[in-house]
Amino acid sequence: MITKNIQYLLKKNKWTHARLSDILNINRRVFSSWMDKRAVTPSIDKIIQLAELAGVSVHDFCHSDISMVPTKKKDKKEVLFTKYLSSPANIKKAVEVLLGV
């Protein structure tokens, strides 16, 4: 279910594997091992990050099809942060939004 939900998150946000690897600050080979459905699963801190990016609980991210789970309502700050985070050129702006600068 985790791999399926990662695939949904990629599609929904129009992210590449490389982009999500960068967001999660992980090696692309590690990310590929998750996607190849090997015995490797994301660590709990990465699952928490993935659930937050998806706007769902950790439980839902691990055990439910998140395309069918209602997401939590994001506030304006979260929307802007996600928007800026989706482009490598805007990461500085995303941090400024997060910090309220």
Summarize the model shown:
The protein has helices at 2-13, 17-24, 28-35, 44-54, 58-63, 76-85, 91-99. The chain is mainly alpha-helical.
Keywords:
globular, 2 domains, 63% helix, mainly alpha, 101 residues, 434 Repressor (Amino-terminal Domain)
Give a description of the structure:
- The protein is mainly alpha-helical.
- The chain has two domains: 69 residues, 434 Repressor (Amino-terminal Domain); 30 residues, no CATH class.
- The chain is 63% helix and 0% strand.
- The chain has seven helices and no strands.
- It is globular and about 40 Å long.
- The N and C termini lie far apart (38 Å).
- The mean pLDDT is 81.
Second-tier CATH architecture of the largest domain: Orthogonal Bundle
Instruction: Give the amount of beta strand, in percent.
Output: under 5%
Count of individual helical segments:
7
Listing every helix as H and every strand as E from the N terminus to the C terminus, the arrangement reads HHHHHHH
Question: In percent, how helical is the residue content?
Answer: 55-70%
- Main beta sheet, described? none
Please report the first level of CATH classification, the CATH class of the largest domain. Answer: Mainly Alpha
Q: How far is the N terminus from the C terminus?
A: 38 Å
Overall tally of domains: 2
CATH superfamily of the largest domain: lambda repressor-like DNA-binding domains
Topology:
Blueprint: H1 2-13, H2 17-24, H3 28-35, H4 44-54, H5 58-63, H6 76-85, H7 91-99
Helix pairs in contact: 6-7
